[in-house]
Amino acid sequence: EKPTFFGIFGASVAEILFQQSTMAIVNPQLNAIASLVSVKLDENNYLLWKSQLRSAMYSQDLLRYVEGSSTPPPKKLNANSIEINPEHIKWKRSDQLALSWILFTISESILTQIISYDTAREAWVALANAHASHSNIRILQLKRDLQNAKKNDKSMLEYLNHVRFWVDSLRAVNEIISDSDLVLHTLNVLSSEYESFITTVTMSKILPTFFELHDLLLNQERRLQLLPPKIPAQ
Questions:
Q1: Exposed (0-12), middle (13-18) or buried (19+): which is 37, by Cβ within 10 Å?
Q2: Is residue 7 a contact partner of residue 23, using CB atoms and an 8 Å limit?
Q3: Hey, which of 3, 61, 86, 136 has its CA 20 to 30 A from 172?
């Protein structure tokens, strides 16, 4: 008998993990989720996981089940009927599919946080409540790291890669830094040997994009390396 998405709860974590692997075999949509969500939720990546899973669910018309905009139809056709409403069954299947996507994309250590919930919405809210405060701290730390970024003795490529990492990490959690702000911040922390370069860039009518600045700075670094060393003043 093929496993269904019903009856998951009340099972142990080990049983749920086994059902996850079995579900992926019998349901091609669960195979697809692995290519759409590249991370499994753990204690440190809630916003990245949420961003990826929301996009994946939206593409499959499942987002409404976790966000609460889709409510279950009546279980019975009418008050006097003993027959189950087909629309209720249809809704329940879709809701359980959304729930299975959540289960399929979280780590074993997180499973215990939602093991008692029966609907996708309940599990989604529980995870948000458990991880939102940690995520805000993470955003604050990323912004602080970017603000305090210094080139120091790093090569220009290393420095720019660090900046790119912080910016991409923030964008992954929907914290967008404008390209012009990023360019000005990158220039602002450079040493005095780049002063003439900074003046030229900032005085131009149109600022380069960060992508363009990346190449300009690498070229400028190479030019500076070719200059003869300065002789200290006597």
A1: buried
A2: no
A3: 61
